[in-house]
Design goal:
With 272 residues, this protein is mainly alpha-helical. It has twelve helices and no strands. The relative contact order is 0.15.
């Protein structure tokens, strides 16, 4: 569970609730089931009309996934560089068999991209071939995630639209009753505007923020995988550990760089 996302979501909800509670003696006036049905139902129905069922379900899944921890954002890039450099020493000493022993079940679960790329190195593909294969893998992953993220963003645009639709329906009903009791116009207008309120809340507190978070996390994963790809290509080309260190250190901030002399306690003696 991502505590930052959860706490922020709860805080945003509390801000809205507290503003309502402190502004009126009748907070129940903001609860209207027909308005909820129009906004929520219309938004989700439009999602499934606009996209294939699989893509629509992936967009819904992304909303829940946004509240989970994102290992690529939390893990240190410095540690990833250190792992690649350590593998370079292992290959120097034990060959590709040594690297194969490093590809454990835990690694496959923790980092499918890295384990897949490591398998390519062990198989004996050249650096150019690995670069091409992993580039294609990264691009395909980008396209898959982009469609689902776009669907989630579309929900953020559709919710206020259905809120306005509900408001128009309410206004039509209200105007149709204007010949009756004038005192009923105020409450009727309030109910008509509630749907717009629901649409804005769903869009600005749920759909748009979550789609932004998922897109930002996707960018982090792409950056990390691009860095790992470079390291795997250098491993396949049997570059020296120090060369690999210097090359992939260029991906990160100077303060986050991995240095063999400082961060490896027992670097191999035959490094170059």
């Amino acid at each position: 569970m991502s505590m930052g996302t959860l706490v922020s979501f709860i805080a945003g909800t509390l801000v809205v609730l507290l503003s309502i509670i402190t502004a009126t003696d009748e907070p129940s006036a903001f609860i209207d089931v027909p308005s909820m049905i129009i906004v929520c139902g219309g938004t989700f129905v439009t999602l499934f009309i606009s996209y294939e069922f699989k893509t629509a379900m992936e967009a819904i899944r992304l909303m829940g996934k946004a509240f989970n921890r994102h290992s690529d954002s939390e893990n240190s890039l410095k540690d990833e560089i250190g792992r690649i450099v350590r593998w370079a020493y292992i290959i120097q000493k034990n060959g590709l068999q040594g690297l194969e022993n490093e590809i454990t079940d835990d690694l496959r679960k923790e980092s499918p991209f890295l384990s897949y790329g490591s398998d390519l190195v062990v198989t004996g593909y050249t650096g150019a071939e690995i670069n091409q294969i992993l580039d294609q893998m990264i691009e395909a992953d980008v396209e898959r995630n982009k469609t689902a993220i776009d669907a989630l963003k579309k929900m953020g645009g559709d919710a206020p639209a259905f809120g306005m639709l509900g408001t128009l329906i309410g206004l039509v009903i209200m105007l149709g009753k204007m010949g009756g009791d004038p005192a009923a116009i105020g409450p009727s207008m309030a109910v008509a505007l509630i749907t717009t309120f629901y649409g804005i809340i769903l869009a600005r507190l749920i759909f748009i923020p979550l789609s932004t978070k998922v897109a930002a996390r996707n960018d982090v994963t792409i950056f990390k995988n691009t860095m790992l790809k470079e390291g795997l290509v250098l491993l396949a080309e049997r570059k020296s550990p120090r060369y690999i260190q210097d090359k992939i250190n260029s991906f990160v901030d100077v303060k986050d760089q991995f240095l063999i002399d400082r961060d490896m306690k027992t670097p191999a003696s035959s490094e170059e």
